[in-house]
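The protein record now logged underneath.
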Amino acid sequence: MTTVADIMDADPVAVSPDASIEEVVRTLKTHDLTGVPVVNEGGRCIGIITDQDLVLADEEGDLHIPHYVELMGGVVFLEPLRRFEERLRRAVASTAGDMMTEDPVTVDESASVRDAARIIADSGHNRLPVVAHGRLVG
């Protein structure tokens, strides 16, 4: 059985949570990557940033406040605030920790290539950090 460890890049590029957004962009460009894991001081993969995280889609570009109605002295939002808050957080992010998607989908280095392919297909992500005991290894 071929494992993920057999085919992974054993020297993964990563950034720290306190890396600036400029550093993240430079890292993606320098290494011709579409995404980069975010690792803490202990080497644990705590997040991921993809090129999609760095761009606000056209329909999100204006960051409009969700539609609301005033009702009996209160405000009722007609759209989920969570989505707006997430877009706003990313739009004003200054560090990788602010920008990253937390708890990224990962795969253990001992997993089979077939299992990794299934995870990629099921999650819809094209970047899959490889971990051993939570630490980024590939």
In short: The longest strand covers residues 45-50.
